[in-house]
UniProtKB/TrEMBL annotation:
The modification 4-aspartylphosphate is found at D63. InterPro entries: CheY-like_superfamily, EvgA-like, Sig_transdc_resp-reg_receiver. Keywords: Phosphoprotein. The lineage of its organism: Bacteria, Pseudomonadati, Bacteroidota, Flavobacteriia, Flavobacteriales. This is Response regulator transcription factor. Gene3D superfamilies: 3.40.50.2300. GO terms for biological process: phosphorelay signal transduction system. Residues 11-128 form the Response regulatory domain. It comes from the Bacteria. PROSITE patterns: RESPONSE_REGULATORY.
Amino acid sequence: MKTGTAQQKKNLAFINDKSPILDLTCNNLVASGIEVLFRSENIKDGLSQLSTLKTLPQVCVIDLDFYDKNILAQLQELRTQYPTIKLIAHSDIDTEKVVNPLLEIGFASYLLIGSDADDFKKAIEIVINGRRYFSMGVAEIAKEYFHNN
């Protein structure tokens, strides 16, 4: 006898420049039952695809050049237009100069390159449930940021 309610299927979107690493991660997430609603290579295309969806993704994984000031402005636009989508950054950059502006925009998670599909699944689950998740290499930066803000 089954009790309780059925678990809601997790869904997400990817906005990333061409990344074979994220291609593998995406395939592993799909194989584990997570639905990928779309993939785009830049924020402009991502915003366009979001505007056509009847149901928004719960999570958006973003792997772009976070040093680019235009990217930060576009991410702020994404956050403003779609405030309910949880944002997960994926990058090889572990400096305050990059991490703090993303936290200011409202990213709920930051995974460093080298994170595997299990790390992504854990981060997705945690941010969907309203908490934050950070790779070890940026956890102290995030802790300090939230302590001071």
